[in-house]
Design goal:
The structure holds two protein chains of two kinds. Chain A is mainly α. Chain A contains 16 helices and no strands. Chain B is globular, with a radius of gyration of 24 Å. The chains are: A mainly alpha, B alpha/beta.
């Protein structure tokens, strides 16, 4: 019994190990030395203080987006549109950074608030399209993603183009006062970490301790019963989308205000899609999300150095994380394989193990 | 064939659904499997038919141990099960359904299938129109089709789970005759899972009795009903007395209500139900009675007319709005429409509250759930999920979630699949409810229940509501004629 509980608890690590083995196999097949590759990746992620800080800095918007997705996934919504919500948040923050005159704290406060609003509204559109228009959030979200990216491209090549002429590269760098102050010349802004931690606590409490979180859970499991038990599916759907959008918008602001210093084409860099993978790998367990987001960030950042050091392409990082998610979906929960059999309630409710540990 | 079930165990969390059951089945017999809700009948039958594996124990066919990893592998070994809800695919034609899972070739042999289907159905007296599609069939006909499919698949052991729920009296006779023929003439083994003792007495020659996951005994049939009841419940439950009750003022009034859906329209509903009255609606499924209930609940919008609740016009109100003025609706599908399978009892209690707080006080809610578990005699813990409960306990939970001081309770099949004790229990709860002046409208396919429990009755047939009859003076025969359209 004790061994079984233990297996259920560490189960999330199994697909990660399986993915590592698979990747090692792939490396051997291409004639690369796995030890050298992983060493290079480790060096790339944590070799210097600057690199480590980059990993942390990259983690933060990924973590914020993943936290938002925890809410929508709980409510049974596939918020693919998160990518567009990140972009719209970045656009809103950039607008303030480019055109508003104020002291630094005011600027940053307005940037953050407007970015969250923009993300929430963009997500709200997808939500309303779903509840009122019968458009599935996946399709609505994809369309809104395209629109957000086109809108950015229009801005940086049109009204917001640098004075030296239009390009698809980006706006002029923002003034120093409108950016988040960074730690030791890195891309890491301590303020953003603080915000992410606050968001983590809020999402954790919302899902665990509020009636709203419970309503989302009921809605995600059985919309019909939830409705009959008094849950307003339209209201909760739109609210969940908007909360997720606000966090995504915040992620977008962190991208333009500390990772970069201006609004660029492809500002999100696929963080929204990556966040979907993080949440799937975490299997909706809130406290696993920061760890997995950090791990993803380390792998992806490490893979960049990998290309410089070895002949391998940096997309190896993408392969590793992608394969990992596939293995998680393949292995499912321990219950699906019959390992957690007589402790079924634990496998069904993996959350309970978090509280104790 | 001889079937031995040896020491079967199946636990769901801490619930011991089957706790070491051993039975032996000989060919040519019809066995009844009896037990109250949660006794473990369905679990045992699902294990025998390969729907789910046991935690331990074995099944021997003709002395050889077999493990089934799916219903198909059970059928290949001669064990087939007819479920309460037929497992067929409604948009398919009958022949397609018949072939599904049987003919594995790329090109299906329709001609052979049709003749086999015809031969089998005429042999057992089933009148199946093989050109028809499944969704045009009645529940009884779908059952016959499924039975024929199982027989053609080589079933030597047939398990029938509550087969007479929702089928007509004629279909029941046809079914029972075919079951006798299968056992007596063809030497097959039949297992009838039923709550209805009369059916077991009529059809079976032997009955096994289960209680709380354990085998408690077996009886040769016929035998006195009291003996069976005693074995099922440990003691004979008192027959619930329907207390007389002084009815109050009109609580619900329907004036010229018209409802149309793309399937059915119901015209000119006029009805007045008084506070504390129990009003029964009879009729074949899909005759309009459900639309009436759903219109009162705010789930279906009437085309015209007025619905007045306690002097307030609630026509076209939304479900959540009618719920807020103390109208409750309990649907037929417990885990589909009412409970969320994976949520715990405590979580249900929190969700269903009249007023919800922003933060959940889990400790207090857990205590609340525990007190409801005690009050409604639910077999479960506050952290049990809804799907871990048996059907009867799910129904008790649904009743445990209803608010106090309701004005109107709308019920679909309130006691479907429940044993005598749970049925009495549920009705006693409803009798208590009318002390508060709650009006109750319910739908049931069981005419005895309708006549026994209602004050007044209306019958629906093809979207038309009959005259209203007094339950004290009517009979099953009269209601039966009305269901048949003689309104």
């Amino acid at each position: 019994m004790r061994i079984r509980t233990w297996i259920v608890r560490i189960w999330p690590l199994v697909p990660i190990l399986a993915a590592l083995l698979f990747t090692i196999g792939l490396l051997v097949l291409f004639g690369a030395d796995p030890v050298e590759v992983f060493q290079a990746m480790w060096q790339g992620a944590f070799g210097t203080q600057d690199k480590t800080l980059s990993v942390v800095a990259f983690t933060i918007p990924l973590l914020l987006s993943s936290l938002g997705l925890l809410l929508t996934f709980t409510a049974g919504l596939w918020n693919i549109g998160i990518e567009g919500q990140i972009v719209m948040g970045a656009v809103a923050a950039s607008w303030v950074a480019l055109f508003m005159d104020a002291t630094s704290p005011v600027l940053i406060a307005v940037e953050v608030i407007l970015a969250m609003l923009a993300g929430a509204l963009w997500a709200g559109v997808a939500g309303i399209l779903k509840t009122r228009g019968g458009v599935h959030e996946i399709f609505g979200g994809l369309a809104l993603n395209s629109l957000a990216i086109i809108f950015t491209n229009y801005l940086i090549s049109g009204p917001w183009q640098p004075p030296e002429g239009g390009s698809f590269f980006g706006t002029v760098p923002f003034r120093e006062i409108s950016q988040l102050s960074r730690f030791a010349d890195s891309r890491f802004a301590p303020f953003s970490l603080l915000v992410a931690m606050v968001a983590l606590v809020m999402v954790f409490v919302a899902l665990r301790g509020t009636t709203w979180g419970l309503k989302l859970k009921a809605l995600g499991q059985n919309p019909r019963s939830a409705f009959l038990l008094g849950v307003s599916s339209e209201r909760e759907t739109i609210l969940a989308m908007m909360f997720c959008g606000a966090l995504a918008g915040l992620a977008g602001a962190v991208r333009v205000l500390s990772w970069y210093d201006n609004l660029k084409q492809n500002i999100s860099g696929g963080i929204g899609y990556l966040a979907l993978l993080v949440v799937m790998l975490a299997a909706y367990r809130t406290l696993w999300v920061p760890l997995i987001a950090f791990f993803f960030s380390a792998v992806l950042n490490g893979a960049i150095t990998l290309q410089l050091r070895t002949q391998l392409h940096s997309s190896l990082g993408g392969i590793l994380t992608g394969v990992m998610v596939l293995f998680v979906l393949l292995f499912g929960s321990s219950k699906a394989l019959g390992i957690g059999k007589s402790s079924e309630d634990e496998a069904l409710e993996p959350d309970t193990s978090e509280i104790e540990s | 064939m001889r079937v031995e079930i040896r020491d079967i165990r199946k636990y769901f969390g801490s619930v011991k659904a089957n706790d070491g059951i051993t039975l032996t089945l000989e060919e040519g017999h019809i066995y009844g499997v009896l037990g109250e809700n949660g006794a473990g009948k369905s679990t045992l039958m699902k294990i025998l038919s390969g729907y789910q594996p046991p935690d331990s124990g074995e099944i021997l066919l003709n002395g050889q141990p077999h493990t089934f990893d799916s219903p198909l592998s059970a059928l290949k070994n001669g064990v087939g099960m007819l479920y309460q809800d037929p497992h067929d695919i409604p948009p398919f034609s009958i022949v397609d359904n018949f072939l599904l899972g049987r003919d594995k070739r790329l090109r299906l042999n329709y001609r052979a299938a049709e003749s086999e289907l015809k031969e089998l159905s005429s042999k057992y007296g089933f009148a199946l129109d093989i050109q028809a599609h499944v969704d045009s069939l009645s529940l009884g006909e779908r059952q016959q089709l499924e039975l024929v499919r199982l027989l053609a698949g080589g079933a030597e052991v047939l398990i029938l789970d509550e087969p007479t729920t929702g089928i007509s009296a004629e279909q029941k006779d046809v079914l029972f005759n075919s079951m006798r023929k299968l056992a007596r003439e063809e030497g097959k083994i039949l297992l009838l899972v039923s709550h209805k003792l009369e059916e077991v007495q009529e059809l079976c020659d032997h009955a096994f009795i289960l209680r709380r996951g354990k085998y408690v005994g077996e009886m040769e049939i016929p035998c006195p009903n009291e003996k069976l009841v005693e074995m099922m419940f440990g003691q004979v439950p008192p027959r619930s007395e329907r207390p007389t009750f002084e009815l109050g003022d009109p609580m619900l009034e329907l004036r010229d209500v018209n409802i149309s859906t793309y399937r059915l329209s119901v015209k000119n509903l006029n009805l007045s139900v008084r506070a504390g009255e129990i009003f029964g609606l009879a009729g074949l499924e899909g005759s309009g009675q459900r639309l009436l209930i759903q219109a009162c609940a705010g789930l279906v919008r009437p085309e015209s007319g007025q619905i007045i609740l306690d002097g307030q016009d609630i026509t076209s109100w939304s479900y959540h709005k009618t719920r807020a003025v103390n109208v409750a609706y309990v649907a037929a599908g417990r885990l589909e429409e009412g409970l969320v399978a994976s949520l715990s009892l405590t979580e249900h209690v929190v969700l269903a509250q009249r007023e919800t707080d922003f933060f959940v006080d889990w400790a207090a809610s857990g205590q609340d759930a525990q007190s409801r578990i005690e009050h409604y005699q639910i077999v479960g813990r506050p952290d049990s999920t809804a799907e871990e409960l048996s059907g009867g306990n799910q129904q008790r939970l649904l009743f445990g979630l209803l608010w106090n001081k309701l004005k109107l309770i709308l019920l679909e099949h309130p006691t479907r699949g429940l044993d005598v004790r749970s049925t009495n229990y549920i009705w006693n709860l409803l009798y208590q409810r009318r002390q508060d002046g709650t009006a109750i409208i319910f739908i049931s396919p069981d005419l005895d229940e309708i006549i026994e429990r209602s004050d007044r009755i209306a019958v629906f047939s093809g979207g038309v509501m009959s005259r209203i009859v007094d339950a004290k003076t009517t009979s099953v025969k009269e209601i039966g004629h009305m269901i048949g359209g003689q309104l």
